[in-house]
Amino acid sequence: MSADAQRSGAGPSGTATGLDAPDRPANGPTFQALSTGRKIKNHAATVLVTLAFLIALVPLVWVLVTVVGRGVGAILSADWWGRSLNGVLPESYAGGVYHAIYGTLIQALLAAVIAVPIGIAAAVYLVEYGRGRLARTTSFMVDILAGVPSIVAALFVFAAFISIMGGVQSAFMVSLALVLLMLPVVIRNTEEMLRLVPDELREASYALGIPKWKTIIRIVLPTALSGTVTGVMLALARVMGETAPVLVLVGYSQSINFDPFSGNMASLPLLMFSELSNPEPAGQYRIWGAALTLILIIMILQLGASVVSRFSAISK
Amino acid sequence: MAKRLDLKDVDIYYGDFHAVAGVNLSVAPRSVTSFIGPSGCGKSTVLRTLNRMHEEIPGARVDGEVLLDGEDIYDRGADAVAVRRTIGMVFQRPNPFPTMSIRDNVVAGLKLAGVRDKKKLDEVCEASLRGANLWKEVSGRLDKPGGGLSGGQQQRLCIARAIAVAPDVLLMDEPCSALDPISTLAIEDLIADLKKDYTIVIVTHNMQQAARVSDQTAFFNLEATGKPGKLVEIDDTEKIFSNPKEQATEDYISGRFG
After folding, report:
1. Domains, chain A, ranges and CATH?
2. By the 8 A CB rule, do A316 and B148 touch?
3. Which residues of A touch B109 (CB under 8 A)?
4. CA A206 to chain CA centroid, nearest Å
5. pLDDT surpasses 60 at A29
6. Which residues does chain B have with pLDDT short of 70?
7. Residue B58 and residue A316: Cβ atoms within 8 Å?
8. Residue A200 sits at the chain B interface (C-beta within 8 Å)
9. What is the pTM of this model?
10. A39, A100, A224, B82: which one has the fewest Cβ atoms less than 10 Å from its Cβ?
11. What number of helices (H) and strands (E) belong to chain A?
12. Averaged over A236-262, what is the pLDDT?
């Protein structure tokens, strides 16, 4: 008995496997029009996912329209970007928020100066050196840190650095709290970027007689640079809007304070919070303006991140 | 300066797994030795022990002696980094550094070892690219990224990069398996040229290639999965392909198994 004969005898429908192909009639044309049932399911699913997308879009657009609509007047005023609120009366539509913009930027910058080197070094440890218990513990701690709410980070900094070590409330204390919030984001992101660097590159470098530490600094990190920078900028954008640390760790000031290590300093979230207790309409005017300013700054950072990742992406 | 390689009773392990057992072989200076054998028989593993790349895998270790002109590269006093400067390697898939230009790729080994002299770097760059038969194709675009070259060009770039640090021995791990026949031919011609200055060991799955490029061929095999791979036979390439001593070698090269 030939193999062909065996096969054709194997199944009732005569297919080679002996199984009936689903959705395919035993006789008649092979290709048929889409069945009504599938058409209905297809349309229903399309409608559902489109609807879900639109629903998700509603709050986004709503927030954006409200903030832009109410805040655009404030940020277009001549003094907004160049003046502080020094000496401005609560009911007056004057002054600007450059003191708060400075505060937001300097606090985030200081946090980045501390968090980025530590975060990148920790990620290098986890990816390139970490084996065994210490690495697992570190990794676990990073996960825990990622789940710490900002108010807890702020209270921790208050307890550790102000109550116990006798520090004073200042913008730098805010930065320390922001470090705690930035660190896990920077570590996790850098870690992922480093893992994306193919081992072949490390091997190529070792095979040239280049030591491991130099391979990491000159080959691995540059290859992962664009992703790392993007991650840092996104982390920065995230911590800029944090409100709990500025409420707990620094006092509000109407005027500019360039010194992050002493004295009160405004920041955009703090300015918004303190203007909430201003019963005059001018307070609301400033809140919406500050909100729009914050969104703009964060948007610029995110755009910057995507530009960086596009331009420094590994050239093919 | 080409040097000779001698392996004495080399056993290779991945953790508890005994990957290759009892390898004894010698490689003469200025010659090409090819390692052939079925997948998983340990020929790449042996190659990677020759410049201490094997130990980069956690848990991996090597017993026995690997002598480079009589000096054990696994001696306690031998630094793996120094060994790798002396014994270069070219990998299966071309792996130029993606962030570097063609020039920087070629001189990466020197630059990262601290050579700053630009004139010297340029000289080495040109000499290495000429040595790798790539100079004519890329001399006009040395500042372009290495990743923009074709696969075959990239592999020759990697060879240029490997010879730029002036090693004594050049190891090649299936250097042509990702390349088309024309690029393969270019690399094979290059190997014949490089033989004048270097001791070359090449792993290949392509038996015609082993027959074309090598003076000496080593056949590795393993009896069964889970058992360590073994060096079955090493001899002049001509003998291996015409009149091998072992039946297993004959079966393999004539395609009767594996």
Report:
1. 98-312 (1.10.3720.10)
2. yes
3. 208-210
4. 34
5. yes
6. 1, 257-258
7. no
8. yes
9. 0.81
10. A39
11. 13, 0
12. 90
Residue range A245-255: average pLDDT?
90
Closest Cα in chain B, distance from residue A106 (Å): 32
> Which chain A residue has the Cα nearest residue B155?
A204
The CA distance from B44 to B217, in Å, is: 14
Picking from B44, B68, B99 by the largest number of A CB atoms within 10 A of its own CB, the best residue to mutate is: B99
> According to the model, what pLDDT value does residue B157 have?
94
pLDDT tens digits for range A188-232: 999 999 999 999 999 999 999 999 999 999 999 999 988 898 889
- Residue B78's pLDDT is 87
Q: A219 vs B86: CB contact, 8 Å cut-off?
A: no
Q: Which of B56, B108, B148 sits opposite A208 (nearest CB)?
A: B108
Q: Which amino acid is at A81?
A: W
- Say yes or no: A63 contacts chain B, CB-CB below 8 A: no
Residue A11 has pLDDT above 50, yes or no: no
DSSP code for A258: -
Tally the C-alpha atoms within 13 A of residue B69's C-alpha that lie toward its C-beta.
Answer: 11
Query: Which residue from B minimizes the CA distance to A222?
Result: B99
Q: In the prediction, which pLDDT does A315 show?
A: 45
pLDDT reading at A18 higher than 80: no
**ipTM reported for the complex, 2 dp:** 0.88
B10 bridge partner residues: B23
pLDDT in tens, B60-87: 889 999 999 988 999 888 898 999 999 9
Please give the C-alpha separations between residue A229 and each of A117, A184, A236, A308, A315, in angstroms, as whole numbers: 12, 15, 10, 7, 16
Topology of domain B5-253, CATH: Rossmann fold (3.40.50)
The DSSP output letter for B56 is G
Q: In what order do the strands lie in the sheet with B169-173?
A: B71-72, B60-68, B5-14, B17-27, B229-236, B216-222, B32-36, B199-203, B169-173, B87-90
Size of interface A-B (CB pairs under 8 A): 77
Let me know: does A220 contact A197? Beta carbons within 8 Å: yes
Option in B81, B99, B148 nearest A209 (CB)? B81
